[in-house]
Amino acid sequence: MNKKLTFLNGAKIGIPIGLGYFAVAFSLGISAKNAGLTALQAGFASLLLNASAGEYALFTLIASGAGYLEVAIMELVANARYLLMSCALSQKLSPKTKLPQRLLIGVAVTDEMFGASIARPEKVSHWYYFGMMAVAVPCWSLGTVLGVAVGSILPPLAVAALSVSLYGMFMAIIVPEAKRNLIIMGVIAISFILSFLTTVIPFIKNIPNGTMIIILTVAISTVAALLFPVKVEEDECNE
Amino acid sequence: MNKAVLYILVAFVVTYAIRVLPLTLLRKPIKSRFIRSFLYYVPYVTLAVMTFPAVLETTENIWSGLAAFVIGLIVAYISGNLFIVALSSCAAVVVVELVLKYIL
Description:
The complex is a heterodimer. In chain A, 74% of the residues lie in helices and 0% in strands. By secondary structure, chain A is mainly alpha-helical. Chain A has one domain. Chain A is globular and about 60 Å long. Chain B is mainly α. Chain B has a domain at 47-103. Helices cover 82% and strands 0% of the residues of chain B. In chain B, helix 4 (62-78) runs antiparallel to helix 5. The longest helix of chain B is centred in the first third of the chain and has 22 residues, at 3-24. The mean pLDDT of chain B is 89. The interface between A and B is large, with 100 and 75 residues.
């Protein structure tokens, strides 16, 4: 297939992804504004990071005046899943994909674009991935910019409604897997409960939110990995 | 340099390294079963922890936040489509806030 057609096929898949990104990024823009970022800074963050949880965590940490090391650790935790996705995507890309092309794809390995690539029966050309990126990445950045710029003009009810769309995205990522895998369902339920408890128990509730997310994630994932190690055939880095 | 931009650049360096290393240099499988299992569980735990109870504090009223959470979980269970789930959660907030304000 020629480059142009492959690119356009990717762009077509990018449209529904971009639509969802736009709505979620808008709510992300509202939290960026609350952290004191300008529209330009928030748009810059979205263009570089392309990560809902990672950006949300970043804005929360900036708002609470955290240090740079804390930001680095938080990003490591919030984005650790991309390590596995990139492993799998690396195998899924056409073997002819060159280094500069891989470096560009690396900017935007996201849950949705990863999912769309893996869902294809054949190897994925970098032109296909670029096509998705060409639509989805601008939607994500533009949504964030508008969230900062327009968020303060909208009535409070609209802001409240749009603010939850980010959490909708998180749930859309975790729940489908819980449906297939009861261990994941249990892990998610325990995460909800412990996360809630840490906000009500005296002393513990004074620990900054970002730090608590890191502690809980590492602790719960370690216990889950020890009790329920995944099977070898789920190894996404193998051919 | 602007402090916010520096924060963003720190976040970018870490995030980009996570994504691009497996695409370029580390193209061998991760051998350790524990590390693979740990990395498998991390996203579900971290997204769950970030969602609840934070979603309750996003809206003016705790009940509309709770509605967004419950409706989001149900719709995600049925459909799993990002746009539909996000939209359903938003709609739940609007409905509950309006009911609390004008009907109850």
